[in-house]
Amino acid sequence: MGADAASSSKANHTPEGHPAIPAAKTGVLLVNLGTPDTPEAGAVRRYLREFLSDERIVDLPRAIWLPVLYGIILNVRPAATARNYAKIWRQESNESPLRYYTREQAEKLAASFEGVNVDWAMRYGNPSIASRLDAMKADGCERILVIPLYPQYSATTTASVADAVFDAVKKMRWQPAIRMAPAFHDHPAYVEALAAVTRRHLETLDFAPERVILSYHGLPQRYFDLGDPYHCHCAKTSRLLRGKMGWTEEFAPLAFQSKFGREKWLEPATDETIKELGRQGVKKLAVIMPGFMADCIETLEEIDIAGRETFMEAGGEAFTAIPCLNATPEAISMLEMIARRETAGWV
User: Fold this and answer.
1) 131 and 223 inside one domain
2) For 33-76, what is each residue's pLDDT tens digit?
3) Would the CA dihedral through 339, 341, 346, 347 be positive or negative?
4) pLDDT of 22 strictly over 70
5) What's this model's pTM, rounded to 2 decimal places?
């Protein structure tokens, strides 16, 4: 052993020949839902297969669900979904908006939360939770905070992220310490961020909305009946945002979007609410989607494109979809508050 090597070994208090160990670090992993790699049917099929195979998403007996999934849905839905992704795909970076904004959130959080390894992953698709946890562990992260980017808790989202995290670490010989950040549906910084983004957007309009729909991703009613707190979290976020904005419940009704299948889902449905408001004579409408931390196919295509068409066909004259928090300064400040709170004692 040379003098330099001997000195290094002594300084690190490791015996000669010991495997290299990186300096201990703390990490933060942001996780959002997921996205196909390309707006093509094959990529969408792979993504939907992973997404809809998760028992947290569809909890029907496998003997009933899998034949439907593989025999019908994966043969019919990918082409139509791919066309919708193509409408909102970011051509300049060749990625979905969700991937773009989630990466930007991680990069900006890393810049503001110095000394912590910040990374990002998707629950379904790429980059996977397992691949990023492996990379963080290899980089020396012995303590990792996971922040599911779902403000309102649901077993279908937050719990599914936890499942994937612990499935990944149980394969590791040397596991990092793991913390899961809780839902932040009533965090003052989250509500203030929603209000700030909303005010900025409304100031850019040449019309004043007569109604603002608060639209959240839907959930089967049965899940709520079994104890999922998602509806309650959505209702509380809505109440707090209305209070911050000075809105009444009549002016800013709660609704749920993205239903699929025949099972009864949470109501009222966003598309039906849009249609009904148009029929009632409302001419100017805005929709905000507080449950989405980043703009994605559900906000940009389902609401801003399809929802707009529905409203105009029902007699509307002006429509706007209020952007999600994305990587705005308010969003990054909120994420930093959560990250610092949840890594207390680590950093």
Assistant:
1) no
2) 999 999 999 999 999 999 999 999 999 999 999 999 999 999 99
3) positive
4) yes
5) 0.94
Cis ω before 19 (30° cut-off from 0): no
Annotated binding residue at 201? no
Distance CA 343, CA 322 (A): 32
Q: Are residues 50 and 34 both part of a single domain?
A: yes
**Number of CB atoms found within 10 A of residue 195's CB:** 18
Tell whether residue 185 is among the known ligand binding residues.
Answer: no
Closest by CA position to 206, among listed 313, 284, 301, 277: 284
CATH assignment at residue 85: 3.40.50.1400
Domain extent at residue 203: 188-322
The DSSP element (H or E) to which 177 belongs, if any, is strand 177-180
Task: Check: CB of residue 300 under 8 Å from CB of residue 88.
Answer: yes
Q: Is 100 helix (H, G, I), strand (E, B) or coil?
A: helix
Q: Which tokens in the block code for residue 109?
A: 């959080």
Tokens encoding 194? 């929603």
How many separate domains does the chain show?
A: 2
Q: Where are the alpha helices (DSSP H) in 170-269?
A: 188-203, 221-225, 230-245
Predicted confidence (pLDDT) per residue in 81-118, tens digit = 999 999 999 999 999 999 999 999 999 999 999 999 99
Same domain, 178 and 235: no
Q: How far apart are the first and last CA of the chain?
A: 36
For residue 16, CA distances in Å to 8, 11, 144, 312 come to 10, 12, 30, 74
By C-alpha distance, which of 203, 292, 295, 186 is closest to 244?
186
Say yes or no: 163 and 213 in one domain.
no
Instruction: Tell me the mean pLDDT in the region 264-282.
Output: 98
pLDDT value, residue 10: 42
Q: Are residues 215 and 279 in the same domain?
A: yes
Residue 4 has pLDDT above 70, yes or no: no
Closest by alpha carbon to 123, among 162, 84, 95? 162
Q: Which of 214, 269, 268, 210 is nearest to 239 (CA)?
A: 214
